[in-house]
Amino acid sequence: xxxxxxxxxxxxxxxxxxxxxxxxxxxxxxxxxxxxxxxxxxxxxxxxxxxxxxxxxxxxxxxxxxxxxxxxxxxxxxxxxxxxxxxxxxxxxxxxxxxxxxxxxxxxxxxxxxxxxxxxxxxxxxxxxxxxxxxxxxxxxxxxxxxxxxxxxxxxxxxxxxxxxxxxxxxxxxxxxxxxxxxx
Length: 184
Ligand code: B4P
Fold this sequence. Notes:
Helices cover 58% and strands 14% of the residues. With 184 residues, it is α/β, with parallel strands linked by helices. A 5-stranded parallel β-sheet has the order 2-3-1-4-5, sandwiched between helices. AMP binds at residues 32, 37, 58-60, 86-89, 93, 130, 141. Belongs to the adenylate kinase family.
């Protein structure tokens, strides 16, 4: 049973690696960023509320993402495991998740901290060129990461759930390391 959380700055490879690993393991890849972008595309009430935050590189309010994570984690397909990519992103969201997982009997999750230096992630994101991948928005997302998300590294280290992987390697090398971790 694999339950993994991917942490790391924007552009560190969370989404890229989570997708590969989830396919390998045949478990759902739950990306809050993807769910929000899909909702924005379809202009659902969630998408309309989220769009200015996502486009500016700000975190969407906790309540919105927490509701969507809760709804997703009670679906039948998560019984065989899951990979959470991009959630939690704040200590408040981590507290919410801890409580939720206890309620729905889904403990034992491990946390992968994918690390990569700022200049590397800026270059990758500029090359990708999503709507929120302009230089100004990327710099802002990195500030938000440092202030809001990086404290989760200590949070999960204290709970002995943290595994750090160097994201500044080829995609294949990172995938190999992650495959070793999930099979160990
Ligand atoms: P996300 O969708 O999570 O976006 P991200 O942090 O930029 O990372 P992503 O996973 O897409 O990119 P990756 O590193 O894989 O969030 C977007 C927005 O949604 C947030 O800013 C926020 O507004 C909102 N949001 C999401 N979750 C939220 C939450 N919990 N609370 C509040 N708001 C939330 O890949 C980047 C690029 O690098 C790709 O082009 C890839 O091909 C390349 N790449 C990856 N690995 C590489 C490697 N090893 N070598 C070379 N290139 C590589």
